[in-house]
Design goal:
about 400 residues; mainly alpha; Rhopdopsin 7-helix transmembrane proteins; 2 domains; two-stranded antiparallel ribbon; two-stranded antiparallel sheet; 14 helices; 4 strands
């Protein structure tokens, strides 16, 4: 069962990630900041999943048959790729956070700087986990590949390595990722305040809100129809809910797929402190393999969440796989280019609302004139203006088009 699952993960993950990498490298228009991170994520996914055949062979055989060199390089490459994977996902969340939440609502990175950040991530991971290549080795008598921490009097080397490794590899990037997506989630939910319809105005120009359209958690999980909304407003609301749902899915996927291997790393440290003759380990081999398979599954989910849900990437895939040119490929990434549109739409809605209220106050003030002819003329001018100004009624109630983030 383990070998079959590992084989399926290896084939599907390799195809998906190679498609992402080919799309970014083949089309110059796709070489944006976020897509540079996605390219690095695809490379890390491919290298991470390339270890699957060795793991599958080790599980199919009761003894380690790949030699001491592979025993050292295999866990070292897995730790390095896992570090790069999590920090690349964190960098994507930080870039999204800056584009959507932090003024001036655009990425401060360039493709060159994004490339330097990814190279720095690989270099840091290679140095941080260099001891793993020396501490893993083939056990001469048991013929297994295992980890043996060196023991020195007065120095707890296993503790000095394991705690920082777990913190910088798993805890810190996952905490930053959850924080940034939580800020984005709050920003999107705050736009529900714009889902109001000013059907009537009082003499002082304040809107009497008769209907409020809010996004609830139930609507995010279970989409329902809204009889009080027009077809256009319901389409915008559904796209808005879809963006929030994908953000929640990103966070849940990362946490659920990397927490098991984090716990396993801590248990490896606990078992490594036991005496050599003590075999009552907390961790067994199948525990480590299944936790590793869950992490391998993340290499398949990443291209689905970050690539196949994008219209830009789907258009690239159609051209790569089928040679289709009917769909035009966008020149910029949907994750970065259109985040600024969200804020521009939000700011424009505020400007339209203030402008419309000032016009209504002006119309009311002129209608109270003592001169009947002047009052009649003022009403004609106000009505002509208000009817020709599309933002005075309907557009104010429209939320920013958050669907642009994912180009749905």
């Amino acid at each position: 069962v383990e070998v079959a699952v590992l084989t399926a993960l290896f084939i599907t993950s390799l195809i998906a990630n190679l498609s992402i990498a080919a799309a970014v490298l083949r089309y110059r228009e796709m070489r944006t900041v976020t897509n540079c991170f996605l390219l690095n994520l695809a490379v890390a996914d491919c290298l991470f999943v390339m270890c699957v055949p060795a793991v599958a062979l080790a599980r199919a055989s009761p003894q380690w048959r790949l030699g001491d060199l592979v025993c050292r390089l295999l866990p070292y490459s897995q730790f390095v790729c896992g570090f790069v994977l999590l920090w690349t996902l964190t960098l994507i969340s930080m870039d999204r956070h800056r584009c959507i939440v932090v003024p001036p609502y655009r990425s401060q990175l360039t493709p060159r700087l994004a490339t330097l950040l990814t190279v720095a991530t690989w270099a840091l991971a290679a140095v941080l986990f260099l001891p793993v290549a020396f501490w893993f080795g083939e056990h001469p008598s048991l013929e297994i590949c295992t980890l043996v921490f060196p023991r020195y009097d007065g120095i707890n080397l296993s503790l000095c390595f394991t705690i920082p490794a777990i913190f910088f590899t798993c805890i810190l990037p996952m905490t930053l990722l959850v924080y940034h997506y939580q800020r984005i989630f709050d920003k999107l939910l705050k736009t529900r305040k714009r889902w109001t319809t000013p059907n009537s105005l009082s003499p002082n120009g304040k809107a009497k809100v008769e209907a409020s359209r809010k996004i609830s958690l139930q609507q995010i999980v279970y989409p329902v129809r809204h009889p009080s909304l027009t077809h256009h407003e319901e389409m915008r609301l559904n796209k808005h809910v879809r963006v929030v749902r994908v953000l929640l899915l990103n966070v849940l996927v990362v946490l659920n797929m990397w927490l098991p291997i984090t716990v396993v790393m801590f248990l490896i440290y606990v078992d490594g402190r036991r005496p050599t003759e003590d075999t009552a380990f907390f961790l067994r081999s199948h525990h480590f393999v299944w936790a590793l398979m869950v992490a391998y599954l993340n290499t398949l989910v990443n291209p689905l969440l970050y690539g196949f849900l994008s219209d830009n990437f789907r258009a690239c895939f159609s051209r790569l796989w089928f040679g289709s040119k009917r769909r035009r490929i966008a020149c910029k990434s949907a994750l970065t280019q259109d985040a600024s549109r969200v804020q521009r739409s939000s700011q424009q809605a505020e400007v339209n609302q203030g402008h419309a209220e000032r016009k209504h106050r002006l119309c009311y003030h002129l209608s109270c004139s003592d001169n009947f002819n002047e009052r009649q003329k003022s009403h004609i001018q106000c009505n002509r203006h208000c009817h020709s100004y599309p933002g005075s009624a309907v557009s104010i109630a429209d939320p920013p088009s958050t669907s642009a983030i994912l180009k749905s």
